[in-house]
Structures are given as structure tokens and as C-alpha cells.
Amino acid sequence: MTGFTALRLLDARRLRALALAAGVDPVDAVPRRDTPPDADLLDLTADPFDDVADVFDRLRELERRLRSAGDRRAVFLTIYTRMTAAVRDAIDAGRFADGPWMRRYTVTFADHYRRAFDAFERGRLSAVPDPWLVAFGTARAGDALVAQDAFLGINAHINYDLALALHEIGIDPNRHRKRADHDEIDAVLTDLIDAQQAALTDLYAPGLADVDATLGPVDEALSLFSMTEGRAQAWRLATVLTDASWLFVRRCARWLLRATAVGGAVVTRSPPLDSTLLAALRRVERGVDLETMLTQLAARLDGVD
């Protein structure tokens, strides 16, 4: 066995282990080796982004191609392209104190996603961060809820990529001003929550409209809370990576970053829900009448008792 072959096997075993932990069928999660990567997708992810406009244009085209192919990796991109457009518009409107830094922030952040996607598509799994392995593997399996696919992508990008991107572009000088700009994105995201949910409903899960009508603002509040808390944690970890003089402390920060994001991915992919309830939620996403579904589910649960 050559060293290259052994590395590929170790990559596959790593993804299988993560897939099993997250409740994904490893056969579906591991990229197949008997077919070449999709050249059209790689055309969009092979090279670093030039600027914010390039980020938006290529991500939007990647979303379009994935959605046309029925590839559930499109779900996260439906959210991410809209986030990128909103941040781009906010920069152009002068909403941030340090516009050039925010442009570097947006491009560097997107490049972390681009590299993870490109490596996964090429089958170079050792180069794919573990949270993205769970997210991409789940999307490849295609058996999760749309909300799970969305949150797995958000978890990997915000709870893992963002701290590294902040450290890479630098949070100094004028750290307080940069922190204020970082926090201002939370306000941008607040304005976007309803539009993102509407897009997921229109494109993937028509039944989400019924869920939204039933829960009111609760689901939007939870979505926003997960993103804003993840973004606050990313800044804290970027601060540690920047300020810590001891290598041990920086390694601990990176371990915490990975452990938190992987843990979030596994919990999101394998929530402690009864299989009957999960099946019912999938039916709701597909547009089954929510009231009818709840009545049937209650009857089934009463029968179990």
C-alpha cells in the first residue's frame, strides 16, 4: 500500500467515524472514489476570492448549480449568499467604521468555506475541517431536515471558521472599532432572518411556513441567538489566539474551537428526538398539513402508551 493510498483510507475512516457519530450513513457521506470531482463546481471554488463582489457572484452560482442538481449543500448557501449580499450592501452604505477591514473580513471568511468545499469535492478529506465533514456528509446523505442542513452549515462557518478568519485578518490596531464593526453584523443579520426563512420555505421546505405560523417569533429568535452567540465566541477565541504568548494556550483555544464546533454538529445532526417525531417533521417540511400531522402523531403516541 502506498503512502498516498493509506492517507486516502485514513481520510475515509475519519469521515466514517464522524458520520457515524452524527447519525449519517457512512456509505452516503464518504465521497465516491470511482467518479471524478464535478469540474463545474471546482471552477467556482478552486481559486481564492478577489473581492466581496466575487464572493457573492461565485457563491450564488455555486448555490444555483447545487440546487439544480438536487444537492443539499445548496441549503446553507441559500442562507450564506443572502448574508453576503446584506453585508456587501451595508459596507457600500457606509454602515461600518472600517470599510476596508470589513471587506477583508468578508473575503477571508468566505475563503474558509471555499477551501473546505473545494477539498471535500476533490476527496481531500484531510484538508476539510471536521465540522464541515459532518455538514457536507449530512448534505450528501440527503436525509436530514432542511433546518438541520442549514444549522450544520451555520455551525461550521460561524462556530469554527469565523475565529480563524478574524485571527487571520487581524483584530488590531483599533481593536475596539473593529469589535464594533464585528458586532454591527449582528444587526444586519437581525434584519435578514425572515427573508432567509422565506427563501428556505420557497426553495426546499414549503411546510416551514406552517411551522413559522405555529411558533411565531420563537424559531427566528433561536436562529438569531445561535448566530450572535457563535459570533461573540468567535471574537473571544480570536482574541486569545492574538494575545496569548504561550503556545499551549493557543493550542487549547484551537482545541476548544474544534471541540465546540464538532459537538454542535453532532448534536444538530442527531437531536434526541423520537424517530416517529423526526419522520413527522420531515412530512411537515414537505408541506403536509401541520394540524393533521399533529393529530396523527398524538394518536400514534397515545397508542404506544
Helix-strand string: HHHHHHHHHHHHHHH
Strands, count: 0
Overall domain count: 2
Distance between the termini: 55 Å
Question: Quick one: overall form?
Answer: globular
**Computed CA radius of gyration, to the nearest angstrom:** 20 Å
What's this entry about, in short?
The protein is mainly alpha-helical. It has helices at 3-21, 26-29, 39-45, 52-68, 74-92, 99-122, 130-141, 146-169, 175-190, 193-203, 208-215, 218-243, 247-269, 275-285, 290-304.
What does this protein look like?
The chain has helices spanning 3-21, 26-29, 39-45, 52-68, 74-92, 99-122, 130-141, 146-169, 175-190, 193-203, 208-215, 218-243, 247-269, 275-285, 290-304. The protein is mostly helical and 305 residues long. It folds into 2 domains: 11-272, no CATH class; 275-305, no CATH class. The longest helix is centred in the C-terminal third of the chain and has 26 residues, at 218-243. It is globular. The termini are far apart.
Annotate the secondary structure layout.
Elements: H1 3-21, H2 26-29, H3 39-45, H4 52-68, H5 74-92, H6 99-122, H7 130-141, H8 146-169, H9 175-190, H10 193-203, H11 208-215, H12 218-243, H13 247-269, H14 275-285, H15 290-304
List the defining traits of the structure above.
2 domains; 15 helices; disordered N terminus; 305 residues; mainly alpha; globular; 77% helix
